[in-house]
Design goal:
Layout lengths: L7 E6 L5 H10 L4 E2 L6 E4 L4 E6 L4 H6 L5 E5 H13 L7 E5 L5 E8 L14 E4 L2 H10 L5 E4 L7 H4 L4 E6 L3 H5 L2 E10 L1 E5 L6 H14 L1
The structure holds 1-O-pyrophosphono-5-O-phosphono-alpha-D-ribofuranose and zinc ion.
The site of 1-O-pyrophosphono-5-O-phosphono-alpha-D-ribofuranose has 11 residues, from strand 10 and helix 6.
């Protein structure tokens, strides 16, 4: 391990659809790292770069607080957190450096099969279940729709069967989860893909060389 220099921290998703792609990308950048079974840090052996494996929801905050220099997560998560920071008066919580070529999915409404709802223009007075309340509320506001939003942190597709909501707004990739839960896809409100972000704080001189090198290699 190179210990003489300041080490760069890159946050990625701990376990999920982006994890393997992110590790592969960093390896393709030439990074060799050691990581014990179940360890949440991968230590770079040939570069002063460490990989932090965290919940994807935590990545924007870790980057914004300069705990991690770089992060990779879905545009959906970045946008939800950007709106959350904006509501607290914090603008530009991170620098979006680059959209990557994996993790493509869309955030879309979905309606129960056989429902009398099939279009977002009918959402007035309805309840929408989602893990992305701020993005959905922003959409409703822009389209002058008055609907309630109920937050689920996962398994949103169950909400209509539970009678908790009439409509959901969730990520769709293949569409298999919607079909399995008898939901019909409606309007897409956000297209997403994995993104590389950097802390908004100026990178200290002792780190710039390796941050730039890594960002260039990722590009
Ligand atoms: C995501 C998303 C959908 C599903 C979409 O869930 O929330 O449920 O994947 O993928 P598909 O269109 O290919 O079926 P995930 O598996 O990440 O679980 P979670 O919702 O509980 O976080
Ligand atoms: Zn899901």
């Amino acid at each position: 391990m190179i210990q003489t220099q300041a080490r760069i921290k890159v946050a990625i998703q701990k376990n999920g659809r982006l994890t393997e792609h992110c590790l592969e990308l960093l390896q393709q950048c030439g990074l060799k790292y050691s990581r014990g079974r179940d360890q949440l840090i991968g230590y770079g052996e040939n570069m002063p770069v460490d990989i932090l494996l965290v919940r994807d929801d935590d990545i924007p905050g870790l980057v914004r607080d300069d705990v991690c220099d770089l992060g990779i997560c879905g545009f959906n998560v970045l946008e939800e957190k950007r709106l959350a920071f904006a509501s607290k008066g914090i603008s530009k919580p991170f620098k979006l450096l680059q959209k990557l070529d994996y993790g493509q999915c869309r955030l879309a409404f979905a309606y129960p099969e056989g429902s009398n709802l099939s279009d977002a223009s009918q959402l007035n007075g309805e309840t929408i279940a989602t893990s992305y309340p701020r993005i959905v509320e922003d959409y409703l506001k822009r389209h002058k729709l008055k609907a309630s939003v109920v937050e689920f942190s996962g398994a949103v597709e169950i909400a209509p069967s539970l009678g908790r909501a009439q409509v959901i707004c969730d990520l769709v990739s293949t569409g298999a989860t919607l079909a399995a839960n008898r939901l019909v896809e409606g309007e897409t409100i956000l297209q997403s893909v994995a993104c590389l972000v950097q802390t908004p704080i100026d990178i200290p001189p002792e780190k710039t060389e390796w941050v730039n090198r890594l960002v260039e290699r990722i590009a």
